[in-house]
Specification:
The complex is a heterotrimer of chains A (about 425), B (about 70) and C (about 1000).
Chain A lengths: L4 H9 L17 E7 L3 H14 L4 E4 L15 E2 L6 H21 L10 E5 L2 H16 L5 E4 H7 L15 E5 L3 E2 L2 H14 L3 E3 L4 E7 L2 E7 L2 E10 L5 H8 L5 E13 L7 E3 L6 E4 L4 E12 L7 H14 L7 E13 L5 E4 L5 E5 L5 H18 L13 H4 L16
Parallel strand pairs in A: 1-2, 1-11, 2-8, 4-13, 11-18
Antiparallel strand pairs in A: 3-7, 4-6, 5-6, 9-10, 10-11, 12-15, 12-16, 13-14, 14-15, 17-18
Helix pairs in contact in A: 2-6, 2-9, 3-9
Chain B lengths: L1 E4 L3 E4 L4 E5 L10 H5 L7 E7 L7 E7 L5 E2 L1
Antiparallel strand pairs in B: 1-2, 3-4, 4-5, 5-6
Chain C lengths: L19 E5 L2 E5 L5 H7 L6 E2 L6 E2 L12 E4 L6 E5 L9 E4 L26 H4 L8 H11 L14 E13 L3 H12 L4 E4 L15 E2 L2 E2 H13 L4 E4 L2 E7 L3 E6 L15 E13 L3 E3 L12 E3 H9 L9 E5 L3 H11 L6 E4 L6 H10 L3 E3 L3 E5 L6 E4 L4 E3 L2 E5 L2 E3 L2 H4 L6 E3 L4 E3 L7 E3 L9 H18 L36 E3 L4 E2 H9 L5 H8 L12 H12 L3 H4 L11 E2 H5 L16 H6 L2 E6 L2 E7 L6 H14 L2 E4 L4 E6 L3 H8 L12 E7 L5 E11 L2 E6 L4 H15 L6 E4 L4 E7 L3 H8 E3 L12 E6 L2 E6 L8 E7 L3 H9 L6 E2 L2 H11 L31 H4 L10 E8 L11 E3 L12 E9 L4 E9 L8 E6 L4 E8 L15
Parallel strand pairs in C: 1-7, 8-9, 8-15, 9-12, 15-28, 17-24, 18-19, 18-24, 19-20, 34-45
Antiparallel strand pairs in C: 1-2, 3-4, 5-6, 5-7, 10-11, 13-14, 14-15, 16-25, 21-22, 22-23, 26-27, 29-30, 32-33, 34-40, 35-38, 35-39, 36-37, 37-38, 40-44, 41-42, 42-43, 43-44, 46-49, 46-51, 47-48, 47-50, 48-49, 50-51
Helix pairs in contact in C: 4-5, 4-10, 6-7, 7-8, 11-12, 11-13, 17-22
Classes of the chains: A alpha/beta (about 425), B mainly beta (about 70), C alpha+beta (about 1000).
């Protein structure tokens, strides 16, 4: 059933008792042409584009828990393509272009809201670095604006732009098309669209191991039994290392927790996405009214997916320093996502050392905004057994070759990216 | 978390800084494998920490990456 | 008393001798000390207090504690305004001002309530199905939807109050001071343990405050008072009231929020508003009680419908009649006590409706004795009345008039704190709710939180938990005896998840705050959002400020019924901290403003401020950019300073440089292994420029290494990398090569450092040195000597960043200003210079700094490839050999000059071929540092450029489209000034 205001009205007349399932609950078949491990946004998008763009519809998506239950459901919903390095810029810009039309493509409103992403600068050195990035964005054909302090103040009136601030704002780099997307809707929209193209989306199905014959991948052992596969794509960022270990290799990735939190819902207060320049914090406001705060990493490896008070307290300090009026607002919920921190801060998409096995991971804390492009290029890579031009730089081999995509220059210390 | 610094005893984890995963096979510490690859264990994990806001001792800790339980 | 028509004539724990005035939506009302805002509103007969989130339906007070989903208000004004405050947790104070929320223009007439009529078009998740036309139209729709959502309005002014943080340790932390908690605290103390007892209320007692019970043969209030006195008198006990344990973290860390002054009109002078406690407990007893569960039926959100336990609390503790003709509706035994308490104070209970077919004879006898009509096997399908409940509709069509309806669907243990560390609770058939299955290490649970719903069991379990917790801390004394009460029947309950067919057409609310109805859950199920997490995310069930305290269990039970599965198979959603919302101010504590991250100041900070310095942040440091003379512009100042250094002598505060002492027999060996350049030939009394690489072969930092003694080296780092370099050395010295006999210590704060640069710098030093020599023979280029300036011992390095004859003088920190002043007073024209001149001088020389050392450059990229030893092993050597790092197209350091000789080049501009305009434009490199050179009389810049060697002399464009600038530049050598380096070594 196509979703629209008309179908809503029609269903209102039948008291909403005739809505079909958004997706089926199929039992796994013995074999698929392609099995995607991981039913988050990336895995579901991959399955969707395999079916839609490459005509490969004999596809299963295996999800250990519930759809979108990993980082798809834990992120702070920001989308942007404000990258310095060309490989990253062009890839994330593809994602932005896909975001812009995704609600229509999926017939599911993912609520792409281009409310602007503003990176504050507090020192001359930071201004130079931001401008270097902004200039690169513009030359790459990506929207970017430099705002001097008075323009920042006009755009975000509640921001503390005074000279008395601990780190006074001197300007900001704005990507006007950056903004937010409703995170759950992305998983649900791709799941529904993929399902309607014949993809089997299988929840509560954990992959326990991989099967190989003559070196080539042939299937997976799962909690629901063996499932054969011609090709297998892994898209389980946060747990990529766990899956890779089951396949017998190690990755240039370390799993860390990224902290996030929301305030109680309030009437509209901040209508853009603002990132602090003197500490790791960004703030936006959800459509429900909660302020969404993205905090820092814990800085030690963990899969615990729970909050860390010390990081939270620091985030609260930064938030109040940015917006002094937030002091009396209340934190309502805080949590953490386990993220794949790669050794250069950029993702890994491509083939592995095992023929027929493909990897999509290493998203650091930038995975959500990449979802459509990630699925798009990963589907291409799996379908053609060769990388899409926009992910050709994201290979596993780049580390051994030294062709790194180190956006921040932090080196092989994943917690510092 | 509470960590036991070999020099200072039990201290809150915020006094410490995680440096990297411990590599038992670091026969040649300049190897690609040592520099770039990680075991990234889910469960018991040996790792190198430093008591940065204290005595600055660098030491190896075994910690569970799911429960955060610390062993020695 | 006329002003409080619903106040009972006697009873309650309120102080009737004093009257407090307060306002609600501007209306002046009165209450008493001991009231909450909710009880005072009820006493004044205020039933309508809020509008709901989605449908803007009229709402009243539903609970009496932290579970309250409806009665949220905006409290206080101006900088102290706080939206979404639960009126049930606010103690009344004189002058309290509260406003209702989420209504326009008023609570009585809310235009947005038309949303109710649009409800057929707005099932859960309707926005996923529409607002997709036209493409890009969502921001328009979203703008209006956002204004409808969002509940309260935040204040826009800074908060005038302060927040504190404290740390505490104890053997046993007891959370909750109800019967289980009080018993646990006394048992633990009796066993010899140190105890912290915390409760979110202003008084100890928990549910006992709301009930009529007897303990140890006396009224419970006596036992509470005696217990409190006993505990409070003991030095090993700390009792915190108005303190909510909101989160459990690793290894016994529990976070508490103490509301120090929220019950006052404003904090007293020097009093914080709230205090965040970080408690590290060896054992934790969770005695957090249980929260009553509502029952789902049609229009169960109408004002006048309330939890039975809340009704009981309003009668017993606050002496307020929550109704005059109420009906009680239940599926379990606990509501009978509420009905009896109502009857006892003279409220005529219209009827007690019990969904169960039969109840225990003692209950029916009690009802008969109290004159309350008992109807068993009776299910409520809905109510009539829009702004207040008027009739209860029974399944089967009959109705009963009433003015209030008190419901009890059983009890949900408060398991939140036990689940913060990841445990999932299990469904228990005895209480038809979820309770703890396994406990995290170090935790105990007792009473209601454990699913034990009788007083006798709470006391018993509390005592046992206290003893066990103490024993786990090695405290095994046996003093004291467990409190006793008369045995009670278990609180029988039957599941009551389904709603009557007749009710299915209307709105039967599961989550009152987020307006989630039974039909919404059905729809979620129909559309296959059957995982509880999908249910929650689609409908917003349990996502409100109450985090589903009254709604989650009903919601998941209904989903389990629809799925035809056991509740355990459906599972629960995660319980995430905080238990109740916590002000960001309390989390931040004092770490805001100048205490956010401590400002680092050099020993000369005060001098800089007193002499016209324009200061800037450099990391956490404050440094002078330039010293402005009266009437002088910034540009004028730093250009004057630059010229002074080139022409005479200037001094600069470089105390922020990292300084590390390396000592020991193997000091040289350590440095040999971490620097890419050789140091073996470095003699005592000599310094050398060096590069340290990261493991991946990229430059970590540059600096100088000086040999002070046979086994004593002193190295400097850049300001930005001081901490990283220290950690790098410590890691290698302690972990990788522990066999090396070497110690590494930061001495950054112990030494101030002053650069003296310019052709007359030697003259300057010669005038001030009181011990030691600075002539060419005693202190040649790259020499180091110990000397003294006046009475101050100093160490002088002959090193040059500016390219002039120059020195750096290391001074014990506290004497830095003495030496600085001595230099200024030496009788020469000495010019202090700041960061801007410092940067210009080094760009003129083509020296690299932060813009070039960006973590992506190798020594060769920076033109320093010749420094890399080919003969030794060092950190980063192996990775430096990777194929892509030898690519001739890698970006390397170049100099840039404007073709027209005058256009400023921007740092951050990208280097592109002339004529390239339409994106994507290939970027060949970028400008890493730029300035105007007063020495050369034209702008200059450094850049990193692909294929630098082959592009030397070529014209490129430095494009800064962000600023609408594009400057044609010529690629030149980065050594703009004195490329032979003659000025550093004048003969």
């Amino acid at each position: 059933m196509k979703y629209s205001i008309l179908s809503l009205a029609r269903n209102a007349l039948s008291r909403h008792e005739r809505w079909p399932q958004a997706w089926r609950t199929p039992a796994p078949r013995p074999r698929y042409d392609v099995v995607i491990v991981g039913g988050g946004g990336h895995g579901l998008a991959t399955a969707y584009y395999l079916a839609r763009r490459h005509g490969i519809r004999d596809v299963a998506v295996l999800e250990k828990g519930w759809l979108g239950g990993g980082n798809t459901g834990r992120n702070t919903t920001i989308v942007r393509s404000n990258y310095l390095l060309e490989a990253n810029a062009h890839f994330y810009e593809l994602s932005m272009k896909l975001w812009e039309g995704l609600s229509q493509e999926l017939n599911f409103n993912v609520m792409y809201s281009p409310r602007g992403v503003l990176n504050l600068a507090h020192t001359p050195a930071q201004r130079d670095a931001h401008q270097r990035r902004g200039n690169a964005m513009r030359l790459n054909g990506i929207d970017a604006k430099w705002l001097e302090r008075d323009a920042v103040e006009r755009m975000v009136p509640l921001l503390n732009c005074s000279d008395d601030a601990r780190f006074p704002v001197i300007g900001g780099l704005l990507q006007p098309r950056g903004g937010t997307v409703r995170h759950d809707a992305v998983a649900w929209g791709y799941a529904r669209a993929a399902d309607s193209l014949g993809v089997d989306v299988i929840q509560n199905c954990e992959v326990m191991g991989f099967q190989r014959e003559g070196g080539r991948i042939t299937g997976v052992e799962t909690s629901l039994g063996r499932i054969g596969a011609g090709r297998i794509g892994i898209a389980v960022a946060g747990h990529s290392g766990v899956l890779a270990a089951k396949a017998g290799f190690a990755l240039p990735v370390e799993t860390h927790l990224l902290q996030a939190m929301v305030s109680e819902p309030i009437k509209p207060l901040i209508d853009t996405v603002v990132t602090y320049g003197a500490g790791h914090l960004y703030i936006s406001q959800s459509d429900k009214g909660e302020l969404v705060l993205g905090g820092d990493l814990d800085f030690y490896p963990s899969y615990a997916q729970r909050g860390n008070l010390a990081v939270l307290r620091e985030a609260a300090s930064f938030a109040i320093e940015m917006f002094p009026c937030l002091s009396r607002l209340r934190l309502m919920r805080h949590w953490a996502g386990a993220v794949d921190m790669s050794m250069d801060g950029s993702p890994i998409i491509g083939k592995t050392e095992i023929p027929g096995l493909y990897l999509n991971g290493g998203w650091c804390y930038g995975g959500f905004k990449a979802t459509p492009a990630s699925g798009y290029v990963f589907a291409h890579t799996i379908a053609n057994d060769s990388p899409h031009p926009l992910c050709a730089a994201f290979t596993l081999e780049r580390f051994a070759q030294g062709a790194l995509l180190d956006e921040k220059g932090a080196g092989p210390f994943p917690q510092h990216h | 978390m509470l960590f036991r610094c070999p020099h200072c005893g039990d201290r809150d984890h915020t006094e410490f800084s995680y440096l990297r995963e411990f590599d038992p096979d670091a026969a040649d510490d300049t190897q690609f494998r040592h520099v770039y690859l990680r075991r990234n264990e889910i469960g018991a994990h040996r790792e190198i920490w430093q008591h940065v806001y204290g005595c600055r001792t660098v030491f190896v800790l075994e910690r569970d990456t799911v429960t955060h339980a610390v062993h020695g | 008393m006329a002003s409080q028509p619903w106040r009972l004539a006697s009873g309650g724990a309120i102080d009737r001798t004093r009257t407090l005035r307060f306002t609600f939506d501007g209306r002046e009302l009165q209450g008493h000390p001991g009231d909450t805002l909710a009880s005072a509103l009820l006493a004044n007969g205020v039933r309508l207090v809020a509008r709901s989130f989605k449908y803007h339906r009229p709402r009243g007070i539903f609970g009496c504690g932290p579970e309250e989903p409806n009665a949220l208000v905006r409290l206080r004004r101006a900088g102290r305004a706080e939206p979404n405050t639960r009126s049930t947790m606010i103690e009344l104070f004189e002058g309290l001002e509260a406003e209702s929320q989420n209504r326009h223009p008023s609570l009585e007439f809310d235009f947005a309530a038309v949303g109710q009529w649009l409800a057929p078009l707005t099932p859960p998740g309707f926005y996923y199905k529409t607002f997709m036309w036209p493409r890009g139209g969502w921001p328009f729709y979203g703008h209006w939807l956002r204004r409808l959502g969002g509940m309260g309005t935040a204040g826009r002014l800074p908060d005038p109050d302060r927040y504190d943080q404290r740390y505490a340790h104890c053997d046993v932390l007891v959370v909750g001071s109800g019967p289980a908690g009080l018993a646990a605290a006394q048992a633990a103390l009796g066993a010899g343990a140190s105890v912290m007892l915390v409760d979110e209320r202003d008084a100890l007692g928990g549910h006992l405050l709301h009930a009529q019970a007897r303990i140890d043969g006396a009224p419970a209030s006596k036992w509470i008072a005696a217990s409190e006195a006993r505990l409070a008198a003991h030095p090993k006990v700390r009792i915190l009231r108005r303190a909510t344990a909101f989160g459990c973290y690793d290894h016994g860390h529990v976070a508490l929020l103490e509301r120090v002054a929220d019950h006052l009109p404003a904090p007293r002078p020097n009093q914080p508003r709230q205090r965040l406690w970080n408690v590290r407990a060896r054992r934790i007893v969770v005695a957090a009680g249980a929260i009553e569960r509502p029952i789902v039926f049609n229009d169960n959100d109408r004002p006048g419908i309330m939890l039975a336990s809340a009704a009981r609390a309003y009668v017993n503790r606050y002496a307020v009649a929550p109704g005059r003709n109420p009906i009680v509706y239940t599926n379990n035994d606990s509501a009978y006590a509420a009905a009896l308490d109502l009857a006892r104070v003279g409220i005529r209970v219209r009827a007690l409706l019990d969904s169960r077919a039969a109840v225990a004879p003692r209950l029916s006898a009690a009802m008969q004795q109290a004159g309350i009509e008992l109807r068993t096997g009776c299910v409520v399908s809905g109510v009539r009345g829009a702004r207040a409940v008027e009739d209860v509709l029974l399944d089967g069509g009959k109705s009963l008039d009433c003015d209030a309806l008190f419901v009890s669907g059983g009890w949900n243990p408060s398991v939140h704190l036990l689940c913060h560390l990841g445990a999932r609770p299990r469904y228990d058939e005895a209480i038809h709710s979820v309770k703890p299955a396994t406990l995290p290490p170090g935790f105990h649970v007792a009473g209601g939180a454990a699913g034990s719903l009788s007083l006798a069991r709470a006391l018993d379990e509390g005592w046992r938990a206290g003893r066990e917790a103490a024993a786990a801390c090695g405290c095994t004394d046996e003093s004291g005896t467990a409190p006793r009460t008369e045995a009670e029947e278990p609180c029988g309950a039957e599941p009551l998840w389904d709603i009557p067919r007749a009710a299915r057409d209307g709105k039967a609310f599961v989550d009152l705050q987020n307006d989630v109805t039974y039909r919404d859950i059905e729809l979620a199920h129909r559309e296959n959002f059957r995982s509880v997490e999908h249910l929650k995310r689609l409908t917003a069930l349990g996502m409100g400020t109450d985090q589903g305290k009254t709604s989650n269990v009903n919601g998941l039970a209904i989903m389990a019924r629809l799925r035809g599965e056991a509740i355990d198979a459906v599972g629960t959603t995660a319980f995430r901290p905080p238990y109740t919302p916590v002000a960001f101010g309390a989390l931040a504590g004092r770490e805001r403003g100048e205490h956010l991250i401590p400002v680092r100041r050099t020993p000369l900070h005060a001098w800089h401020l007193a002499h016209g310095a324009l200061m800037t942040s450099a990391g956490h440091w404050m440094r002078p950019r330039a010293y402005l003379r009266p009437g002088e512009s910034f540009d004028g100042a730093w250009q004057r300073e630059t010229r002074a250094v080139r022409g005479a002598v200037g001094i600069c505060d470089v105390s922020t440089l990292g300084k590390i002492d390396v000592q020991g027999p193997d000091a040289l060996e350590l440095l040999e292994r971490v620097y890419c350049n050789g140091l073996r030939s470095l003699q005592v009394g000599r310094a050398r420029y060096g590069l340290m690489l990261r493991e991946d072969g990229m430059v970590l930092d540059d600096g100088t290494t000086s040999r002070i003694g046979e086994q004593h080296y002193f190295i400097t780092t850049t300001t930005a990398n001081a901490a990283r370099v220290l950690q790098h050395l410590e890691y290698y010295a302690q972990m990788v090569w522990p066999e090396l006999r070497v110690h590494v210590a930061s001495v950054s704060d112990q030494w101030g450092q002053i650069a003296a640069a310019g052709p007359r710098s030697r003259d300057l030093l010669a005038r001030v040195v009181s011990r030691g020599q600075v002539d060419e023979a005693a202190l040649p280029f790259l020499g180091v000597v110990d000397a003294a300036i006046g009475p101050v011992p100093v160490r002088i390095f002959r090193i040059s960043y500016s390219g002039e004859l120059a020195y750096e003088i290391a001074v014990p920190s506290r004497n830095t200003e003495t030496v600085w002043s001595a230099l200024l007073g030496a009788g020469l024209e000495v010019t202090p210079y700041g960061l801007e001149a410092l940067g210009t001088l080094r760009i003129e020389k083509g020296h690299v700094a932060g813009g070039e050392l960006d973590g992506r450059t190798t020594p060769a990229d920076l033109g320093l490839g010749r420094m890399v030893s080919r003969t030794k092993r060092f950190v980063g050597a192996r990775m430096l050999g990777r194929v892509a790092l030898a690519d001739p197209q890698r970006r390397a350091l170049v100099g840039l000059e404007p073709l027209d000789g005058k256009s400023l080049i921007r740092a951050g501009a990208q280097l592109v071929e002339p004529g390239e305009r339409t994106p994507p434009v290939a970027m060949l490199g970028h400008v890493s540092s730029a300035t105007y050179s007063p020495t050369l009389g034209r702008p200059i810049a450094l850049g990193l450029l692909a294929g630098a060697a082959s592009r030397m002399g070529r014209t490129l464009v430095a494009a800064a489209p962000l600023l609408n600038e594009a400057v044609e530049v010529k690629v030149v050598s980065p050594a703009f000034y004195d490329p032979e380096g003659l000025r550093m070594k004048p003969t």
